Amino acid sequence: MSTQQHDLDALVAQKYQHGFVTDIESDTVPPGLDEDVIRLISRKKGEPQFMLDWRLKAFRHWQTMPKPDWAHLKIAPIDYQAISYYSAPKKKDGPKSLDEVDPKLLATYEKLGVPLHERARLAGVAVDAVFDSVSVATTFKDKLAKAGVIFCPFSDAVRDHPALLEQYLGGVVPYTDNFFAALNSAVFTDGSFVYVPKGVRCPMELSTYFRINAANTGQFERTLIIADEGAYVSYLEGCTAPMRDENQLHAAVVELVAQADAQIKYSTVQNWYPGDENGVGGIYNFVTKRGECRGANSRISWTQVETGSAITWKYPSCVLTGENSVGEFYSVALANHYQQADTGTKMIHIGRNTRSTIVSKGISAGRGQNTYRGLVKILPSAEGARNYTQCDSLLMGDKCGAHTFPYMEIRNPTAVVEHEATTSKIADDQLFYCRSRGISEEDAVNMIVNGFCKAVFKELPMEFAVEAQNLLSVSLEGAVG
Amino acid sequence: MNDIMLSIRDLHAQIGARKILKGINLEVRAGEVHAIMGPNGSGKSTLSSVLAGREGYEVTAGSVEYLGQDLLEMAPEDRARAGVFLAFQYPVEIPGVNNAYLLKAALNAVRKQRGLPEFDAFEFLAMVRDKMKLMQMDESFLNRGVNEGFSGGEKKRNEILQMAVLEPKLALLDETDSGLDIDALRVVANGVNSLRGPDRAIVMVTHYQRLLDYIEPDFVHVLYDGRILKSGDKSLALELEKRGYDWVRQEALVA
Fold this sequence. Notes:
The complex is a heterodimer.
Chain A: H1 3-12, E1 26-28, H2 35-44, H3 49-63, E2 87-89, H4 103-111, H5 116-123, E3 126-131, E4 134-138, H6 141-147, E5 150-153, H7 154-160, H8 162-168, H9 179-187, E6 192-196, E7 206-211, E8 222-227, E9 232-240, E10 248-250, E11 253-258, E12 263-271, E13 283-293, E14 299-306, E15 311-314, E16 317-320, E17 326-335, E18 340-343, E19 346-349, E20 355-364, E21 369-378, E22 386-395, E23 401-410, E24 416-425, H10 428-435, H11 441-457, H12 462-471
Parallel strand pairs in A: 3-7, 6-8, 7-9, 8-11, 9-12, 10-13, 11-13, 12-14, 13-15, 13-16, 14-17, 15-18, 16-19, 17-20, 18-21, 19-21, 20-22, 21-23, 22-24
Antiparallel strand pairs in A: 1-2, 3-4, 5-6
Chain B: E1 4-15, E2 18-29, E3 33-37, H1 44-52, E4 58-66, E5 69-70, H2 76-81, E6 84-87, E7 94-98, H3 99-113, H4 121-134, E8 145-146, H5 152-166, E9 170-174, H6 182-194, E10 201-206, H7 210-214, E11 219-224, E12 227-232, H8 234-243, H9 246-254
Parallel strand pairs in B: 3-10, 3-11, 6-9, 9-10
Antiparallel strand pairs in B: 1-2, 1-4, 4-5, 7-8, 11-12
Helix pairs in contact in B: 5-6
């Protein structure tokens, strides 16, 4: 092994930096899942009857479903009865403001680089912080309320806006959709709800920080974002998790609905614990994310930077129903150590003149396995549909892998579909070039990776792009301002 | 006379089992310009690569001392920070990495080493704009990816721009003239000449006398089959141009 390879290995072997556990009393249900647990969750959250009925239907359906088995992931069997399905920080009456939030909790956010009050105020971002399963602080509610925007914990929405919930819940991701979506529908504990009324441009970027904290508690978030006609909203989701020995299951569902002329931009920076150098202890991340461009001229953009999780299984998708609607997917996925990422998107073209763009950048290092799996489906009704797909893979070292599975189903002859794919290694001569200019090897690697990801980073909101670059330990570009 | 900056003694180097450098001896003082000439495969590029610290070359014997330090023991980035600069024969493309960003990072790494404060974006821009005028480069170069889609001539100009910005003590130019038309050659030579000075040494490796019409060397060395067979002043280059390299080999055989 050359010394360069050796240095590279040392570099990619860096430990996860956000590993710590907050010691807060949790109100946790014993492990196991049956209808009584679901009734308990529903009761603890004070839900109306329709919600409980929906959960139970989902649970009964889930029991009939076979456990999924994917081509390119190695997953140890998951014991669903060994998971605790509810964990809430103990609270008296619930905090009315940040002052009432447990200081230890706030300290956790500080460690994560999320100084809630400071950051939120300075950046003008409303943060609905989800700590384990219950939201503990929401800021900027007033400003949003003035604009008529609803941004609240999902369980508040169930109580306060039941009509919207009944109308939209499960409309994009029905509980019958897949194994994990069914499980989530039965046991979800919280998440975020956003409704932007007709013609309203949401006055700030909405942001939620998710964090898994109590040991052995699966996280089953549920997010529903609705942009009514002509509305615009940009939503940021970021995740970190403390270091753990046992695998943690995360099976979230995100549903987006864009009505006519509406636009939703959904950005994710995901940094869950990926497991140690030997692949022990990381998060299992099985997420169902889907948006529907329901109305004409609507647009949904997914941008994601995935650096964490032991196993990631995630395909943010767009159903392009409305005429002239646009779906976009920009992704950077990093698989290091023993991480496995199987991610991509589905673009389902239904309406006339619908367009979609897919840009996927996969980085594999250590023994990481990175798979892009994408489906472009053009139905007979999608006259004049267009898709452009670009999949690039970057390999660091010689023990990792990159795989690309682009599927296309074209059932309309007027469709135009383009696909480009490249695989490259961080070339020794690129590294040498940077080093011969006085740049350290570590900085050189970061620089090259950053350059590789540029097409995706530029889609992220500014402050998030910075965070994403930091996450990849990439130095900030912008020497010329 | 100035102190010796670079001292190469009996340097042997190989790639795999193939011996390329077979005992190089060379001394370079501050203020001097040396040209190393030789036919293809004589070891010219290997010499500059070994001096800059490229991986893949095994030094089997000899030593290289640079300003009193063992150069061969230093990592490439440490050599650069200590003032060694290699202008590449084939500069690589680094897609998506902003040209200005790389240059600013490089400059600040070097400044830090020299105990100087790092430049902010404004100071950097002011400095680099000046140097770009010298190299007749459009400012749009700053915002392009490093060498991404540059023509051969643009890449070479970019190398000399980097050299002008980094102000090395010892500049190694590896076939900087190759692939340049006459106008580009003039611009590049201008840039190099502007960097000549009593504190700086330049070692250029070249195939052709042509470059030496524009950058006049103090010394010319003939590299042949991994050894320096003959050294002289600039008239030696003219003789090589006229007679080729073979007579040098014959002469060495006789001696």
